[in-house]
Specification:
With about 575 residues, this protein is of the alpha+beta class. It contains 13 helices and 31 strands.
């Protein structure tokens, strides 16, 4: 600490670039500060530091970190405590630009694997971003001292050093409960579980926190399952959705899309008090929708679209401006290629002609290249083992293919399967199926060398600009319709994966996209998220783990992609 103070006093008032001299490691009482990166300007991206706390000063019990899921939840609760302490910190440093900034990659409602905090057998490491104080572009050494000597220790004192064992134990117990629910789901062929008492509605379109005074979820008796989970006196009950084809129906504004949204977010685990902490979904479930204007590169969409005008090839279909139907067909096939086992679809965000073609339209329009989803969904289930959960309010023709029907009425679900069957017998659809005998072939594809054009002039440029946009070289990768991407830090990791792949020439290895995704996941599992950061041995960046499906979605939307069909 004294060493850092002396340096700051020596460089006080000098040009901002003199801050570079403070890079290095400094011992404080109970912790060590490692300054990995110093910003070149008070208005530039903030500096990066690590706080390393030995186990001797904040003991982390072995049972909190001996298994991956326990360690993940322990790291998450520490990151939340630090974020809260930063938000309530009263010791501030003044100056121009980002002077005095202290930030951590704060978690949202989901519990994600991230680099903000890491717990190993002997240490806790906390990664922070800070703004080194300046007056104009001159170093403000006194304010820098306040930042390092007062503000950061105060934040640690109000977080890592005061967080109770009970708080960590509660998080670890939640981790074990989530594992128990997933084990029950696997044993009983469930693709989703929504616990009784869950609060599904969110506060608003821009807030993912639970809505106040919302109607608690209550499962229909026909769909109620009971799960015995640890650290709970009573068994957990809720609605189980079995593998197969499930329709969610109901009037407008009665909670259909809210239920589907909770299910699509259930691929991630949620914190205590979120309202959705016991809403869990098949981790390989993918939300698909129409996406007008997206890039499609060499995707076999023949299962859904054939015989286009001008003999356009749909076995190796490419376009820079996909229509609603072709984009949704590509989204389905790409999800299957990446390994999806459940599809989630909302008619409100789907192309009508992709979803259904009724009897009258069949009679009028004979030359229709689209085989609607209704004629493929059962084949996908029976032949590929892929389930579908579908919000449908406008077409009862889907009763013909549904295994079960859930009716939402004022945010409460009712099992309407038997009633739907009665309606089927009373009002037969009379529509003709457009399906073939088989679903069709999901082709494997290979992204070729040269797809990742990461240079902007002579400099490499791959950067996440927001949750939904990655700047790669001179092009943008637009991810606004990849709806299960939930945290900007996931997007940052995807950007780092693209940069890493290009730097290491992974696309020269001539492997399929599926194998490429396996390779990425293997590196994460063995070496951690930080292994994709530019300086993996230093501050690993503000990164969180996306699923393979969101990584694939980003690659599939690269407009410079060069793709080869393998089979």
């Amino acid at each position: 600490m004294n060493k850092l103070q002396n340096i700051l006093r020596q460089i006080d008032g000098k040009s901002y670039k003199a801050y570079k001299s403070i890079q290095g490691s400094y011992s404080f009482h109970r912790f060590e500060v490692i300054i990995d990166y110093v910003q070149g300007d008070p208005f530039a991206a903030p500096s990066k530091i690590r706080i390393v706390i030995p186990n001797a000063y904040r003991k982390m019990n072995r049972e909190w970190k001996d298994k991956f899921h326990r360690k993940l939840y322990t790291e998450d609760v520490i990151a939340r405590s630090v974020a809260k302490a930063i938000a309530t910190n009263v010791v501030t440093s003044k100056g121009s630009g980002k002077s005095g900034l202290i930030a951590i990659d704060a978690p949202g409602q989901e519990i994600l694997e991230r680099t903000a905090v890491s717990v190993d057998p002997n240490h806790v490491t906390i990664c922070l971003s800070i703004g080194l104080p300046a007056n104009g572009r001159r170093i403000n050494g006194k304010e820098a001292e306040k930042l390092f000597i007062e503000a950061i220790p105060a934040i640690l004192e109000n977080s890592i050093f005061t967080i109770t064992d009970e708080t960590i134990i509660e998080a670890v117990q939640l981790a074990e409960q989530h594992q128990a629910i997933r084990a029950h789901m696997k044993e009983n062929n469930l693709v989703a579980f929504i616990a009784d008492g869950s609060i599904l509605p969110r506060q608003s379109g821009i807030s993912n926190r639970p809505m106040h005074d919302a109607i608690p979820f209550q499962s229909p008796e026909e769909n109620r399952v009971t799960v015995n989970i640890p650290h709970r006196d009573e068994p957990l009950t809720g609605m189980g959705i079995k593998q197969g084809i499930t329709l969610i129906v109901g009037g407008g504004y009665h909670g259909k899309s809210t239920l589907l949204n909770a299910i699509e977010r259930g691929v991630y685990h949620h914190i205590h008090g979120d309202g959705r902490e016991y809403v869990l979904t098949d981790p390989n479930a993918v939300k698909v929708r129409a996406e007008d204007g997206r890039q499609v590169s060499a995707v076999n969409i023949t299962s859904f679209i054939n015989d286009l005008p001008h003999k356009q090839d749909t076995e190796c279909f490419s376009t820079t401006n996909a229509s609603g139907s072709t984009s949704q067909a590509a989204n389905v096939v790409e999800s299957l290629e990446a390994g999806a086992t459940t599809l989630l679809i909302d008619e409100d965000t789907s192309a009508t002609n992709f979803m259904i073609r009724d009897r009258r339209m069949q009679q009028l329009v004979e030359k229709e290249p689209i085989t609607p989803f209704i004629d493929k969904v059962a084949q996908m289930n029976h032949q590929l083992g892929v389930s579908t959960i579908l919000v449908m309010g406008g077409s009862g023709d889907y009763f013909d293919v549904a295994d079960q029907v859930i009716m939402m009425d004022q945010y409460l679900p009712y099992n309407a399967t038997e009633k739907a069957k009665e309606i089927l017998s009373k009002y037969p659809t009379n529509r003709e199926s457009d399906q073939d005998e088989t679903f069709g072939h999901v082709s494997a594809r290979q992204f070729l060398d040269g797809s990742l054009q990461t240079n902007r002039g002579k400099k490499e440029k791959v950067q996440a600009k927001s949750l939904t946009t990655i700047l790669m070289g001179r092009t943008e990768i637009y991810l606004a319709y990849v709806e299960q991407l939930v945290d900007p830090s996931q997007t940052r990791l995807i950007a780092e994966v693209i940069r890493h792949m290009d730097k290491k020439n992974w696309l020269k290895e001539n492997i399929s996209l599926s194998d490429l995704l396996d390779k990425i996941e293997t590196q994460i599992n063995k070496q951690g998220l930080g292994s994709f950061a530019p300086f993996a041995d230093q501050h690993p960046g503000d990164l969180a783990r996306p699923r393979r499906f969101e990584i694939a979605a980003a690659l599939n939307r690269i407009r410079t992609a060069k793709v080869k069909v393998l089979n």
